[in-house]
């Protein structure tokens, strides 16, 4: 059995803490068993390890999320990165070709696909092996996990049981699906034995490989990468699930929740205040999550979420908070905060002048022992001021010591990298006519390989 975790999302439902590169699964607002901050993806990765399934797991994601995944989970994670954002059918097809061509998975191997961020207890992951049994016993094209509903939710999709279901079987046949019904319909479907659809399903690898062959699509990973941009932007549900001849589902009766909006997420946050701020005694059922260095005070409000980050500030009634995604449909603001495998950065200021010149100022944190890639930029010049810490900078193959108070000028097309000996803070000022994160040409990632590209001589700047 192989497990493919789907990591995507536009980052708008939990704005302003989430953005296009830091979607909801990366927000460290939960607590691990030791009481330390933990993101949803870190929680799921920990639970997979506790269930003994981590060595079977892969993460399918877009390039924009690769760095933060490495940063939060570690460099050993196996990523299958989309060359560009499409939809779930292309993403799962790419993962299938990777398992088949690069990992040598058998065509009879069971592939389990699931979201990267379900909020469940550890017993959920022990149910995944039941999907393999359901596929074998039912001869179904797909097997799903369905959650036993605890109330008639109008927010979730439902899996409808087939006629004449045998309660003695370890799985049920599926007759169809229903999305977000009204309360009365949900109550009736639950009486009929319907289950919540939690987005977890399994299939035999040969099923999807055969679909790709029938569509004249590549079944080898490298070729799929080349043709990825021509694949249709369509969901796996529409392209595969709705066309499946037979679907089975196994029942899960434990805790499950989708923490996709502020009102559901705050139900699992045990502190009314995260970050700088004050919540008055006259305030009830309010949560403040503040990533800024200035305090936020809430006085006398009830049932509200106040979230503040470099990307913006949200003050919303919890019940209406799911509408924030619709409010931001037209917004194309660049992310002002991002996490990378080496640390994180925050945009402090951005200005565009009448002559077209842009100036962007960043605060950059590089964790001790981590390094930036060896890279250059075609469109911008940079000036670095080292605020604290020490390390090594490589600039055009010259290796130099770096410490607090140093200033480095990095002209466009200059090859450069930095490694932190201690935690390192740098203020970076970029200037140019187009300042975008995509203006990075990476030459090497690992520090030992970077050092080999440079002569042995060292010096001062």
UniProtKB/TrEMBL annotation:
Pfam families: MannoseP_isomer (PF01050), NTP_transferase (PF00483)
The Mannose-6-phosphate isomerase type II C-terminal domain, residue ranges: 340-444
Domain Nucleotidyl transferase: 4-268
UniProt-recorded name of the protein: Cupin domain-containing protein
A single BP term in Gene Ontology: GDP-mannose biosynthetic process
InterPro entries registered for this protein in UniProt: Man6P_isomerase-2_C (IPR001538), Mannose-6P_isomerase_type2 (IPR051161), NTP_transferase_dom (IPR005835), Nucleotide-diphossugar_trans (IPR029044), RmlC-like_jellyroll (IPR014710), RmlC_Cupin_sf (IPR011051)
One MF term in the entry's GO annotations: mannose-1-phosphate guanylyltransferase (GTP) activity
């Amino acid at each position: 059995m192989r497990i493919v975790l789907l990591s995507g999302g536009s980052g708008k439902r939990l704005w302003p803490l989430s953005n296009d590169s830091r979607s909801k699964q990366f927000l460290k607002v939960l607590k691990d068993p030791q009481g330390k901050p933990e993101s949803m993806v870190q929680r799921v990765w920990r639970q997979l390890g506790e269930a003994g399934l981590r060595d079977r797991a892969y993460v399918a994601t877009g390039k924009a999320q690769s760095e933060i995944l490495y940063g939060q989970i570690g460099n050993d994670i196996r990523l299958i990165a989309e060359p560009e954002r499409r939809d779930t059918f292309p993403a799962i097809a790419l993962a299938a070709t990777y398992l088949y061509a690069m990992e040598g998975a058998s065509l009879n191997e069971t592939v389990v696909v699931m979201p990267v961020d379900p909020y469940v207890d550890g017993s959920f992951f022990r149910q995944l092996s039941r999907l393999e049994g359901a596929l074998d016993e039912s001869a179904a094209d797909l097997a799903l996990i369905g959650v036993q509903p605890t109330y008639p939710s109008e927010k979730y999709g439902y899996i409808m049981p087939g006629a004449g279901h045998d309660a003695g079987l370890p799985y049920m046949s599926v007759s169809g699906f229903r999305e977000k019904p009204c309360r009365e319909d949900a109550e009736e479907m639950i009486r009929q034995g319907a289950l919540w659809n939690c987005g977890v399903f399994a299939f035999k690898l040969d099923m999807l490989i055969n679909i790709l062959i029938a569509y004249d699509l590549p079944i080898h990973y490298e070729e799929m990468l080349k043709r990825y941009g021509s694949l249709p932007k369509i969901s796996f549900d529409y392209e595969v699930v709705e066309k499946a001849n037979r679907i089975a589902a196994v029942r899960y009766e434990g805790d499950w929740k989708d923490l996709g909006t502020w009102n559901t997420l705050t139900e699992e946050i045990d502190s009314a205040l995260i970050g700088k701020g004050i919540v008055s005694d006259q305030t009830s059922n309010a949560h403040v999550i503040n990533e800024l260095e200035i305090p936020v005070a809430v006085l006398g409000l009830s049932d509200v979420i106040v979230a503040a980050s470099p990307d913006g500030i949200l003050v919303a009634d919890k019940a209406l908070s799911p509408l924030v995604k619709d409010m931001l449909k037209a917004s194309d603001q660049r992310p002002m905060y991002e996490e990378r495998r080496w640390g994180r950065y925050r945009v402090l200021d951005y200005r565009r002048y009448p002559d077209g010149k842009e100036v962007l100022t960043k605060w950059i944190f590089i964790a001790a022992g981590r390094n930036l890639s060896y890279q250059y930029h075609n469109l911008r010049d940079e000036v670095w001021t080292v605020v604290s810490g020490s390390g090594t900078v490589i600039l055009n193959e010259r290796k130099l010591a770096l410490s607090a108070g140093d200033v480095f000028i990095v002209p466009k097309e200059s090859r450069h990298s930095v490694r932190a000996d201690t935690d390192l803070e740098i203020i970076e000022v970029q200037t140019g006519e187009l300042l975008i994160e995509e203006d990075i040409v990476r030459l090497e990632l690992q520090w030992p390989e970077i050092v080999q590209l440079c002569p042995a001589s060292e010096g001062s700047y």
